[in-house]
Amino acid sequence: ESAVTETASPDKQPDLTGQAKKTIQTKGNVVIFAMDGSDIAINALKWYASKCHRPEDVVVLVYAVEMSEIFTSAQWLQTPNTEDIDAFQTIFRHEIEKIQKKLQTFTKVLRQLEINGSVRSTHACKPGEGIINVAKELNATMIVTGSRGHGKLRRTLLGSVSDYLIHHADIPVLVCRHQSFN
């Protein structure tokens, strides 16, 4: 199960409280874009903006934070007393601040590309699971993601968000391979 929080919109200041509307009204499509902030994801977004995006579409950038990232933070592992609640709260606040900074950066990218949309984070055990949950919640018509182009062995060992999305989403998934950005 994952929790979804809307955190920013390109036409207003970020809402970091999670109290923003979850309903999207548009005459176009609601497109979910899996965003991790990598060059591959940014280039995929630029490719989507130039080749596929229509002004009436709404894009929701979804940053999937793996819960394991938060709880295996190097800071947490180096805490002398793992039962120290204050240390845990400090580390957790620091992780939230890092996530919020990334989301604010993603909002700027949407603004630069003049794309109508918002930025959300989702916290899930598997990033693909969180992205699909947001897509279902918003009744999205398509999911777009970049692909690092790893070989079959590496994908098998490490997993792949794009593979997960392709095999588990109930809506079309557009995978932008890194070679196609040129």
Automatic annotation (TrEMBL):
Gene3D superfamilies: HUPs. Signal peptide: none annotated. InterPro entries: Rossmann-like_a/b/a_fold, Universal_stress_UspA, UspA. It holds the Pfam family Usp. Residues 31-177 form the UspA domain. PANTHER family: USP DOMAIN-CONTAINING PROTEIN (PTHR46989), USPA DOMAIN-CONTAINING PROTEIN (PTHR46989:SF3). This is Usp domain-containing protein. It comes from Magallana gigas.
